[in-house]
Specification:
Length: 438
């Protein structure tokens, strides 16, 4: 009897366990079903959000197209110059030996040495305004020296310059006129490929063109200098850049990269390096000279110590005369740089200034470029931007780096060139120790 009861109890226990397990399994299945339903609802919501996002993207695309059309219309309106203003501008361009031609081909009628040939340049998306000015100047140099047609390509801000009105514009349809296109990197490349019997297109294909030849030609050719100045000039007058009349004015181009280039690695300020610096001095005719540029080692980003040293050097050269030093930079915080230089240099004869409003690498480009040409002195890096400034400016003294060396994480500018412009036309080049004075 007890055995039967035990078996019954075991049977009931297994039955209850199985029933409980079945109930739990059913609950789990219900939970799984509910979770699947929730997932489906979330997936549906996500699909709706994606559709909304796609709709917003389409609206944004249409808005961008409209903005592009508006920008094009504004650009075209900006290019339309009233006839009276155009006539007045042509009269201004006729000053100082620059001839203005109604038909661009007429300009080369008497001097064309390579009939049918032309020179242009490659535009790169990574280039900045100074790079484009350098390319245009190189093409203008070959055009003027060898009497070949310049085919001008538009670049950012060039529609604001006189070249956009007076140079013959490049067009892909013109390629059929040339038997071959030659990439060139220097004047030597041009001479090597030049053929007066064939119509050829010479394409300057890099920013680092051999500018030694360009500046050497500028030293002895006032007509070229004047024409270059007239082409690299704003169509419409810019706001007057104020400069004091009772001080020697000094433009300092502090190239920092401004968020456009990679970060700098050198220590920016240091001592004990002046014994490593060598100065070369050049005395030239003030009316014709545009300084020699060493293209082998482009020193675009010297440390702050370079600018501090050269401001002190210039002040000493000028017997600590009253100076007005204006810092031009692509940095977003020029005031911080100014305050740092002012504190480190600590000379009472120097008044510092810089742009106080918003500043970055793509703002104030044209304004800063032409403002820098108006100063008595220029301290610059190996930047195409300030090389262009020097090329068309009339500075009395220009200071720029020529060589550098890395010493324990410090970028030492160990050779600096100082260009002094004089009226007597003499050209003297000499290297002097840094402590000997100039």
């Amino acid at each position: 009897m007890q055995t039967k009861q035990l078996i019954l109890i075991l049977y009931l226990s297994f039955f209850l366990f199985g029933y409980s397990y079945t109930i739990q399994l059913s609950n789990l299945e219900q939970q799984l079903y509910n979770t699947q339903q929730q997932f489906h609802e979330v997936a549906q919501q996500l699909s709706n959000v994606q559709q909304q996002l796609h709709s917003v993207q389409q609206q944004l695309h249409h808005a961008q197209q409209q903005l592009f059309c508006i920008t094009e219309q504004l650009f075209n309106l900006d290019q339309q110059m009233p006839e009276e203003e155009q006539s007045l501008y042509d009269e201004q361009l006729s000053d100082e030996g620059l001839l203005v031609y109604d038909d661009q081909e007429q300009a080369f009628e008497e001097q064309e040495l390579y009939p049918g040939s032309a020179v242009t340049y490659v535009l790169r998306k990574t280039s900045r305004f100074g790079d484009y000015i350098a390319l245009y100047s190189a093409a203008k140099f070959l055009s003027e020296k060898y009497g070949i047609q310049l085919l001008y390509k538009r670049f950012p801000f060039s529609h604001l310059l006189a070249m956009d009105l007076h140079e013959k514009k490049y067009d892909k349809g013109l390629l059929n006129q040339f038997k071959k296109v030659f990439p060139i990197r220097s004047e030597k490349d041009f001479i090597k490929q030049a053929n007066p019997k064939q119509p050829l297109l010479y394409n300057i294909c890099r920013v680092g063109f051999d500018f030694e030849a360009v500046f050497a030609y500028a030293e002895t050719n006032a007509v070229f200098c004047n024409r270059l100045r007239k082409m690299i000039a704003p169509i419409k007058p810019l706001d007057e850049f104020w400069l004091p009349q009772d001080r020697i004015t000094v433009a300092v181009h502090v190239r920092k990269g401004g968020g456009y280039d990679r970060p700098l690695s050198s220590v920016q300020q240091f001592d004990g390096h002046l014994n490593l610096v060598e100065y070369t001095q050049t005395v030239v005719n003030c009316k014709l000279y545009y300084a020699y540029i060493d293209q082998k080692f482009p020193l675009k980003f010297p440390p702050d110590q370079y600018y501090v040293d050269q401001i002190k050097k210039l002040s000493a050269m000028l017997n600590d005369a009253p100076l007005y030093v204006y810092l031009f930079t692509d940095d977003s915080n020029p005031i911080a740089i100014l305050e740092e230089y002012e504190w480190i240099i600590g000379k009472p004869n120097i008044v510092f200034n810089c742009r106080k409003e918003e500043n970055r690498h793509d703002l104030n480009v044209i304004e800063d470029f032409f403002a820098m040409t108006k100063f008595d002195c220029l301290i610059r890096p190996q930047s195409n931007f300030s090389k262009g400034v020097q090329l068309i400016g009339k500075h009395k003294i220009v200071i720029h780096p020529k060589k550098a060396a890395w010493v324990n994480g410090k970028l030492i500018i160990n050779m600096v060139n100082i260009v002094i412009c004089q009226e007597d036309g003499t050209i003297v080049k000499a290297s002097v120790p840094v402590n000997s004075g100039i």
